[in-house]
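Human: Here is a favour to ask of a fellow structure person. Comparing notes only helps if you start from a blank page. I am asking you to supply a protein in sequence and structure-token form. Write it directly below this note and I will take it from there.

Assistant:
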Amino acid sequence: MNVSEYILLIKELFVAGGIVMPPLVLCILLLWYGVGYRFWIMKEPKSMSVRDMFRYYQEHTDKPAKSIVAQAMQQGIELKKKNVRNLRRHLDATFYEYEREIGKFSTLIRVVVLISPLLGLLGTVIGMIETFDSLATMTLFSQTGGIAGGIAQALFTTQMGLTVAIPGLLMNSLLNRRQRQIEQDLTQVKDLLCHQKLLSIT
């Protein structure tokens, strides 16, 4: 299939979906941009426990951090070496940027997942109105599609709305689970750093 055939196919899909297709396509783009960004940020699963990673980066401070937890850990270790007062408060402020970063676009994904089926439902209503109008005038085919066009639009937009929402819901669930795990790891890093400083004082 060449480029012109792809363009023709996309045009036919837009016509089949009616006026709700542009916002649905926008939802698709926003959804996968948000999902892709969050996967990229949280892409590196930890290969060792937080405690083992903590010991590793204390001994190898020059090693590049491969995950967001490791980046935060290196920054926390450097902060502890400066012997700042109220370390926990400084760690909370420092780690906040990492916590905010892993939560970025989660609201966008959730909103897209919620409104996509509603847009599909709107397309269904518009398609059924077209169908009933055509039935009233006994028009099988018209400029707007007639009975066949109305039914096709009603079914197609529902399918498109669910096609956006279902994968988005699954991906968002996986990403939120990963986010919660990273947040727990960051909290554990703070606890380890504060505990180690307390031991050094006593």
Q: What stands out?
A: DSSP finds seven helices and no strands in the chain.
